[in-house]
Automatic annotation (TrEMBL):
<protein>
    <submittedName>
        <fullName>Carbon-nitrogen family hydrolase</fullName>
    </submittedName>
</protein>
<feature type="domain" description="CN hydrolase">
    <location>
        <begin position="1"/>
        <end position="243"/>
    </location>
</feature>
<keyword id="KW-0378">Hydrolase</keyword>
<dbReference type="GO" id="GO:0016787">
    <property type="term" value="F:hydrolase activity"/>
</dbReference>
<dbReference type="InterPro" id="IPR001110">
    <property type="entry name" value="UPF0012_CS"/>
</dbReference>
<dbReference type="Pfam" id="PF00795">
    <property type="entry name" value="CN_hydrolase"/>
</dbReference>
<dbReference type="InterPro" id="IPR036526">
    <property type="entry name" value="C-N_Hydrolase_sf"/>
</dbReference>
<dbReference type="InterPro" id="IPR003010">
    <property type="entry name" value="C-N_Hydrolase"/>
</dbReference>
<comment type="similarity">
    <text>Belongs to the carbon-nitrogen hydrolase superfamily. NIT1/NIT2 family.</text>
</comment>
């Protein structure tokens, strides 16, 4: 399975519309890949809280969803389009969510995940966005994806639930700050080792809202080995994965069968 992480530079001097067009072209350039992954909140910037309300959009028919669906269809790839600020209309008004979108190669929306753990300690995202409540997996021809976003990395119980739901490859778009880059690398590898799963962690580059981004998107295998890692700037990080590696590691080192707490252990595949 050929996977590419597009580490987008969220430049505040670039309009959202221009960035959306540019990123769509980058996705179209990935024909031949099986899965393409974008970062968290790349249209507006993960730390640009003052832009969340103005940049919010619906999932169905929203400009980012429309552009990414067309790009996935043109490239013929599965596209995890990172996340958007979703505006969900309710009887009491509108709620905002940090929502990831997964498109099939025909451009159909295959899955959406609302971020469960909101960052900010009562400010920013934590104050402005509602929390998701659902564990989301998606079956691709080669693997089962488990969806999480950025700050979720710090909550291993979510990844245990994804594991129990059948996840074999964990996809984590992020807008992670450079000052905590060491935590980024540590947590991505930890989630891979404890879940015996691939982890595809795609971050942003550049500086937005005064916060320099970590970059260094990572692909980690089920044994915790880093297969590919980006640098500080915008780039495409590509790697070929063997989906059978998950079953092989789980069989060779069957730690998951020794679990004694929580939900029943998943069957080894």
């Amino acid at each position: 399975m050929r996977a590419t992480l597009l580490q987008i530079d969220v430049d505040p001097s670039e309009t959202v519309a221009d960035r959306r067009t540019r990123v769509a072209e980058m996705v179209r350039g990935q024909r031949g890949a099986d899965l393409v992954v974008l970062p968290e909140l790349w249209p507006v910037g993960a730390f640009a809280a003052e832009s969340f309300a103005a940049g919010a959009e619906p999932v169905a028919g929203g400009p980012t969803a429309t552009a990414m669906a067309a790009a996935a269809r043109a490239a013929g790839v599965w596209l995890h389009a990172g996340s958007i600020v979703e505006r969900a209309d309710t009887l009491d008004g509108a709620e905002l969510y940090n929502t990831s979108l997964l498109f099939a190669p025909d451009g159909a929306l295959h899955a959406a995940y609302r971020k469960i753990h909101r960052f900010g300690f009562d400010e920013g995202e934590a104050a402005l966005m509602a929390a998701g409540a659902d564990i989301v997996t998606a079956r691709l021809p080669q693997t089962v994806l488990g969806l999480a976003t950025c700050y979720d990395l710090r909550f291993p119980e979510q990844f245990r639930l994804l594991l129990d739901a059948g996840a074999q490859t964990l996809v984590v778009p992020a807008g992670w700050p450079a000052r905590r880059r060491a935590h980024w690398r540590l947590l991505v590898q930890a989630r891979a080792v404890e879940s015996q799963s691939f982890v595809l962690a795609c971050g942003t580059a550049g500086t937005h809202a005064g916060v320099r981004q970590a970059g260094h998107s990572l692909v980690v295998d089920p044994w915790g080995e880093v297969l590919a890692e980006g640098g500080d700037g915008e780039e495409a990080v590509s790697v070929t994965l063997d989906p059978g590696r998950v079953a092989a590691v789980r069989a060779e080192f069957p730690v998951l069968r020794d679990r004694r707490l929580g939900l029943p252990r998943p069957a080894l595949r």
